[in-house]
Amino acid sequence: MYTTAAFFADKLVTLSAFDPRNVYMLAQAFYMGKHYRRALALLQFADLVEQDDQARYLAAKCLAEVGNHEECLTMLGEEAGSSSQSADSMGSSINLHSAMCLLRGKAHSAMDNQAQAVTWLKAALKADPFCYEALQMLMDNHMLTQSDEEELLQQLPFRADDTWLRLLYTAKRKKYGQMTTLEGTLDRLEEGANGVSHMDDDHEGNDAADNVIHARRSHNGAQVSTSAADHAATGEAAQDEHMRAEDNGNIARGCGLSGCIDVAVCRVEWLYYMGAYQECYDLSCTVIERDPYALEVMPLHLAAAVELRKKNELFLRSHRLTEEYPEHAVAWFGVGCYYLAADNYDGARRYFGKATAMDPCFAPGWLGFGHAFAAQDESDQAMAAYRTAARRFPGLHQPLIGMGMEYARMNNLLLSEQMLHAAHTISPSDPLVLHELGVMAFKLGDNNAAEGWFGRALTMQSSALSPEATVSCLGHVYRKQRRWKQAVAMFEKALGLAPWQANTYAALGFIYHLQGKLALAISNYHKALGLRADDSFAADLLGVALREECEQLESDFHSDLIL
């Protein structure tokens, strides 16, 4: 009832002869009613902007709302008043210094000045860790790298009883750097004060996650010990120790947030990055069933559905989103995901482009836009989309991976390697980055380096979730090194993960062929051709193997005649 509020506030201003408190109240009513210029004119007419920080902040917000970001920054100035505030009052009232820093960060972000935006958003959080909007901008817009996020969270002045907030902020930051510690963080958030989760609705999703966790713990596959992997493990252990130290001995106490959507979304994101797409999809369905309008989980839900090729779900979900949220980028992103899953790349490009036009800060839209071009071998357009994403989201490494892949496709191996190493700098524990670096080393003929990269990629995931491509690539590295036994073991493991891959059967047959085991080689060539009849590699080698076997049988026959 902002119109009613403005009506009576106006009478109070008149009767009190423009009392500053009543003028400010009327300006607030105008602002809430979206009469931004009228609120600004009132504050300037009453000469409150220079006299009161709250009035100055409200006037700056009005300027930001009408798009005058430069004037907004000029009005705020470089100082936002005193940043001192007692710990007891934090969270119980708005910290004006933090709010002004947040507004500066928003204004700089709108003007595409990312460096200054990051500086002011960090200042807002350090002034008041309860300023979640600043954290959300930093995380959602991928303004910080993995190490920067960890450093920022360690600098925030949490109170002794703010353990739940620290844990939740930790769970929201990038997942690759805390794959081993995030399970404990989420469990702490979901458990009640007595250590027991008290929401039965989450059991199904948590059971799915527990299955993935159990598979990860039981991983006994080949692991390559490297300094980078040891460094990552040391960092996670230090983080875990820091978390335990701040809990003042209350390790067994939970936070009772098992029914919280934010915690569930963190778990969904974790499952997605672990490659557990089915479990991710199931848990996201549970979240959407509880809250059909939880837009924060939609990009993950749609991405998991694309990985699982659930075209019907994508069609229905995107249709509903465009009806209910036509002004949101995620709705048209859903339509693009449907067309991507249906291999209609022209339609995918059109709707991913619409999503990015509606919200240039929507990172999934830019990635989908680039992927749709890359799927049609249109490298120039794909590179343009990836470059834009890399510029807008400096803490996001996926655009750099896409650029590296496109450079590799164009056989520009030097630039490809530079892009992949840049992605590795931002996220050193992403298995996809490690895999692509292994592919690059293999192409350059450095088999030892390729073995190290592929081995490190496999250590980042459980044996049950190891990507078939990485296992198969490691098998090719062992083949190049003439380590036949290890190569056969890798290809057999790859077949266990993806038994429909004709290339793996052909590669396994080639290994047996090189060892002179012609019967096994012929058998695997036949299996490869049974899965893909147009496999020229398997067909050619099958002919060679059959001729060699015939020659061997003929030689054995003549030897028997001589004897």
TrEMBL record:
The keyword Metal-binding does not apply. TPR repeats lie at residues 329-362, 468-501, 502-535. Residues 219-242 are annotated as: Disordered. PROSITE patterns: TPR (PS50005). Keywords: Cell cycle, Cell division, Mitosis, Repeat, TPR repeat, Ubl conjugation pathway. The keyword Cell cycle applies. GO terms for biological process: anaphase-promoting complex-dependent catabolic process; cell division; positive regulation of mitotic metaphase/anaphase transition; protein ubiquitination. It comes from Symbiochloris irregularis. GO terms for cellular component: anaphase-promoting complex; cytoplasm. InterPro entries: TPR-like_helical_dom_sf, TPR_rpt. This is Anaphase-promoting complex subunit 6. It holds the Pfam family TPR_8.
